[in-house]
Amino acid sequence: MQHYFIEKAKPTDGVVELPADVAKHFVRVLRSEIGEQVELVLSDHHVYLAELVAVEDRQARCKIIKDLDRNVELPVDITLVCGLPKQSKPEIIVQKSTELGVANVIFTSMERSIVNWNGKADKKISRLQEVAKSAAEQSHRNVIPKVSYANDLSMIDLASYNAKVIAYEEAAKQGEESNLSKVFSQMKTGESGLFVIGPEGGVSDSEMDWMTGEGFVSAGLGPRILRTETAPFYVLAAASYYFELSH
């Protein structure tokens, strides 16, 4: 069943008018007819079952049938901080991380980043936010992750997170294999964690020293060295297993 976010729409007597882009896709692209059912996510982040009841010109209205009372979000909020990667990797990271349940993705310039977004960040973030929305609809999420950009690590509000972790390849090389699970075991439902993933060149010594001073825990992501676009998925899959499958 099709799933749309219409967070700005306000139901009147149980009937909601679909935004123009949603109406176009649902009615004209998918050729939906009166009586067709759809899932709609409103501003309260609840998923509602609705039915198409009217189509006039380019407008479409749906009647809310019931609240599906379904929440597929991770029990904890995971924010990924990704050192700027090359080429199409940001889109891959946002798309797949959204499907895996990420709450926020922050891209940032790090000392060993090969690319920079000077003068281009706003346009890139706008595009990546659309990628997140599409992936959230495909995976039937309750919320759309927020994608943002920080000029450097110091611009991120670290105080708002209950746990802070840096994925460090040297820790993996040295056989560290328990810190990630320890962090998860200390997090409670509703708490938030910040996980930093370095760019292709890795995390510099000075960045590592700064983050350690800010209370970050260094963690290896298994015994293998992961690509910058793979590490975020490891973190999210591990979180899903720990909080959703093993409890």
From TrEMBL:
Residues 18-65 form the Ribosomal RNA small subunit methyltransferase E PUA-like domain. Residues 73-239 form the Ribosomal RNA small subunit methyltransferase E methyltransferase domain. It is an enzyme of class 2 (transferase). Its main location: cytoplasm. GO terms for molecular function: rRNA (uridine-N3-)-methyltransferase activity. The keyword rRNA processing applies. GO terms for biological process: rRNA base methylation. Belongs to the RNA methyltransferase RsmE family. Specifically methylates the N3 position of the uracil ring of uridine 1498 (m3U1498) in 16S rRNA. Acts on the fully assembled 30S ribosomal subunit. NCBIfam families: PRK11713.1-4, RsmE family RNA methyltransferase. This is Ribosomal RNA small subunit methyltransferase E.
